[in-house]
What we know:
Layout lengths: L2 E6 L7 H14 L4 E6 L1 H4 L6 H17 L7 E5 L4 H11 L4 H5 L2 H8 L7 H15 L5 E3 L5 H17 L8 E3 L34 H9 L17 H14 L3 H7 L5 H28 L2 H28 L6
Parallel strand pairs: 1-2, 2-3, 4-5
The structure holds adenosine monophosphate and tryptophan.
Tryptophan binds next to strand 1 and helix 7.
Amino acid sequence: xxxxxxxxxxxxxxxxxxxxxxxxxxxxxxxxxxxxxxxxxxxxxxxxxxxxxxxxxxxxxxxxxxxxxxxxxxxxxxxxxxxxxxxxxxxxxxxxxxxxxxxxxxxxxxxxxxxxxxxxxxxxxxxxxxxxxxxxxxxxxxxxxxxxxxxxxxxxxxxxxxxxxxxxxxxxxxxxxxxxxxxxxxxxxxxxxxxxxxxxxxxxxxxxxxxxxxxxxxxxxxxxxxxxxxxxxxxxxxxxxxxxxxxxxxxxxxxxxxxxxxxxxxxxxxxxxxxxxxxxxxxxxxxxxxxxxxxxxxxxxxxxxxxxxxxxxxxxxxxxxxxxxxxxx
Length: 329
Ligand code: AMP
Ligand code: TRP
């Protein structure tokens, strides 16, 4: 069975974008692949987080993983910081990454371009840690949203570099980006990605949003003056985004939705999008409540960390021997 691995940062409440672009795919893949899914809590602190909020977001993220359908019997679910081998491999890979490569990473470049202050060294080297996350487990495939593809490509380069410099050690991973829903846009500004760190709070639907609030956000989503439900990302980015949301959640192809809404207004269309979104959120939230009231989370994390640590440890030892920093057999 091929192996698949992915992670999500708990740097805020999980969003509908995370669900469509990442989580729901993980759930679909867990029957087909040996799945590893972790909470990237180390990646998360490359930007300052309020400790109290972080603790809450972390626990919520795990509960939401489970609520969205990740099954601990099928997938190894763990916390990044529980596997210290991962961070150590991260350092060793950082020593095999060039400054120029990290300088080219879009996420970092964007922050520099926006003249953000307080960019940490951790944020700069984070793609090398992400490579370690992937390479420690010999993942064949890495399902990610559009924005993370570049980081997976760096992981490929680092794997190949290491394999060539020393000897075959790492599986070269492949990014997997879904065709529909890889980039869900903000409802209030459909030219921007729907993001956890949405300042206005209007453009982003959180998985734990009250259903009435979620509905309101969809009903007031920015549209256009064209007045027809059509998939045209350039001229109708708002409507196209709603079409992608609806199609990903209902499974109905975009063409078919467009045909059904021919000659109908945006209000009617938005109402149906809101129905579909609320149905999904309602199901997830009911399961989330059950999980929060049980004590399953700790057990899942402990089992997951044990399994993950075993694999990552073996890989780290192999790497350390090849590099020459380990002399014991
Ligand atoms: P992040 O929230 O940035 O840690 O992302 C976690 C995962 O969710 C990554 O695979 C992202 O690419 C994906 N993701 C985040 N936001 C969106 C979005 N608006 N649309 C699609 N996928 C997303
Ligand atoms: N960097 C990813 C993000 O911000 C999260 C992540 C960390 C990840 N390590 C990973 C994703 C390994 C896939 C594989 O969304």
